[in-house]
Design goal:
It contains 18 helices and 21 strands. It is of the alpha/beta class.
Length: 567
């Protein structure tokens, strides 16, 4: 997801170290998914008569693989359909002819500690993490902010000109005055459901129609256009934000409240390892299936191919046709792919969902995003300039075409990787007509204007790899980002797993995935909605959770997202 400027004063940050950590506990649906996962009673069970029953899981990204894994543990038989590769937007690629340890994260590449349900699975499969080199982060050697042809070198914000401190203070004041930031973070730390709901309900009613930019303009702290421009172009702390200025301010508040952009960590070896390891994992606790069963073994190694048609058939079943021509019918299905697929690449019956849910999917707004990576011979950016004593190159934020450049170090004198450019929205579309080689040439030219003494090209040891997610046929965008007025649509999608309130002929297919969640673009949202769908399928088959470990559907009525009037 796009970077969000830090929203904590220094004194607040110091005090926060002595408090419980902020997690993605709400604010829309304050449920402790991490506690649900950690409880020894497990996620629930289905009647023995349903053991072995097939459930279609459409989409082999993180949400689909987690849903399939947990359904398998309950004794059901998930049948996973995947059009491309396991992992979805957890996509890790190598560089042809280079050391296989050199990898590029084409999708998700940095994860906050507040993603505690996601971290449950990272820990479970034994993956290692390390600090991600965001701008001005403690583990980032140096940062250069380049605006309007003027560059500033910094290790901390105190090294930047005073105007950047003014922007930081304006952002903090804006959040405090307009969004009750400190009170909400305190409530999230303490998991105070009543307080979280009290603050958030008021803000949803007040701000659902407000853009991010409008929220800034309404604050006396951001009365300066220059401050708003700097904030948009390079942000404060971890990056620029102007590409999201048209989006709903509620989307931004969800991120800053929950620390989603703080203290990021990357996964050593690449994030795609997580769904791949879950695919091969043989759980210790499993019902019905013999010990040693995995998703891979249930599928003979590979998932089913792309789904081409979905329709309802007699008995309120869901019938799936795949790209190989195979037709199978299921009592239940979980759809975790990008929701626009239901409008375009998959032939669907209108009867699959209520009309209001179709409307919500049609209105979903997706963000574009592009990246390009190159392998280099060593972390040469740590060399010192003879005249200044500074690093010869730094993590870079700029208003030039590259926007964000990240330096990914694997150790002294070892081959390394540079993300020459990471962009969103209009900035991403500017790259769309160019192939990887053409993109690299433009990027190297832009960076040479910032670092005239540095010959990046002489360190490149392989071909670049690139992606524009809006051009990927099974994704059509990088992540969902609600526009003003979209709260009601998102609520319909997120709450779809609660199907007792739906007509009987609209039940049995469950939506999941990060674009169904309140925190699209973050892996935590993919995990949370997968667990919602697992609860929904369990309930659909007459199953239940242990009384000691109620699931999201069991406590739904007491923590349901605020409902705005539809008239």
């Amino acid at each position: 997801m796009t970077s969000v400027p830090t929203a904590v004063h220094d004194e607040q940050h110091a005090a926060a170290q002595e408090q419980p950590p902020v997690t993605m506990f709400g604010p829309d649906f304050p449920y402790a998914y991490d506690d649900y996962l950690a409880h020894p009673a497990g996620l629930g069970s289905v009647p023995a008569t349903e053991h072995g029953t097939e459930v279609a899981v459409i989409g082999g990204g993180l949400s689909g693989i987690i849903a399939a894994y947990e359904l398998m543990k309950m004794g059901l038989k998930p049948v996973v359909y995947e059009a491309d590769r396991i992992g979805g937007r957890l996509r890790t690629v190598g560089f042809e002819g280079c050391d296989p340890e050199l990898t590029a994260e084409m999708g998700a590449m940095r994860f906050p500690p507040s993603s505690t349900a996601f971290q449950h699975y990272v820990d479970m499969v034994g993956l290692e993490t390390r600090p991600f080199p965001n701008p001005l982060a403690p583990d980032t050697p140096s940062t250069v902010v380049d605006l309007k042809g003027e560059s500033h070198y910094a290790r901390t914000v105190e090294d930047l000109p005073e105007v950047y401190t003014q922007v930081m203070n304006a952002w903090n004041a804006c959040l405090e005055e307009g969004a009750d930031f400190s009170s909400m973070q305190r409530a999230l730390r303490e998991r105070d459901v009543r307080k979280v709901r009290e603050i958030w309900s008021r803000l949803v009613e007040k701000l659902d129609n407000q853009t991010f930019y409008g929220f800034l303009c309404d604050s006396a702290a951001f009365s300066s256009f220059r401050h708003r421009e700097i904030f948009g172009q390079v942000g404060f702390g971890t990056g620029g934000w102007d590409t999201d200025f048209p989006n709903s301010i509620l989307e931004i508040l969800r991120v800053v409240y929950t620390g989603a952009d703080d203290d990021h960590r990357g996964i050593v070896g690449g994030s795609q390892q997580l769904p791949l390891r879950l695919w091969d994992r043989e759980p210790q606790k499993i019902v019905h299936w013999p010990y040693g069963t995995s998703l891979s073994s249930l599928h003979g190694g590979d998932p089913r191919p792309a789904v081409t048609r979905l329709h309802r058939t007699a008995g309120n079943r869901v019938t799936v046709t795949d790209a190989g021509g195979d037709i199978r019918t299921y009592q239940a299905a979980v759809f975790t792919a990008q929701s626009w697929m239901l409008l375009s690449k998959i032939d669907c019956d209108d009867a699959l969902f209520p009309i209001d849910h179709w409307t919500a999917m049609e209105r979903t707004h997706y963000m574009e995003s592009s990246k390009l990576f190159v392998p280099v011979d060593r972390p040469f950016w740590l060399d010192k300039d003879e005249d200044t004593g500074r690093d010869v190159m730094s993590m870079t934020l700029t208003d030039r075409m590259t926007r964000g450049t990240y330096l990914l170090d694997n150790g002294p004198d070892r081959p390394a990787v540079i993300c020459l450019s990471y962009t969103w929205c209009d900035d991403s579309l500017k790259w769309l007509p160019l192939n990887a080689g053409e993109r690299m040439e433009v990027m190297l030219k832009s960076l040479s204007e910032i670092y005239p003494k540095v010959d990046i090209r002489k360190h490149v040891i392989g071909n670049p790899v690139t992606v524009s997610w809006e051009n990927e046929p099974y994704f059509m965008g990088a992540f969902k980002a609600n526009l003003p007025g979209h709260y009601r649509y998102q609520r319909r999608l997120f709450t779809h797993f609660m199907q007792d309130r739906l007509p009987e002929d609209k039940r049995g297919i469950f939506l999941a995935g990060d674009d169904i969640s309140w925190t699209a673009g973050w892996a935590e949202g993919a995990v949370a909605t997968a667990l919602n769908a697992v609860w929904g399928v369990m309930h659909h088959f007459g199953g239940a959770t242990d009384a000691a470990n109620p699931g999201p559907g069991d406590v739904y009525e007491s923590i349901a997202p605020v409902e705005l009037p539809e008239d």
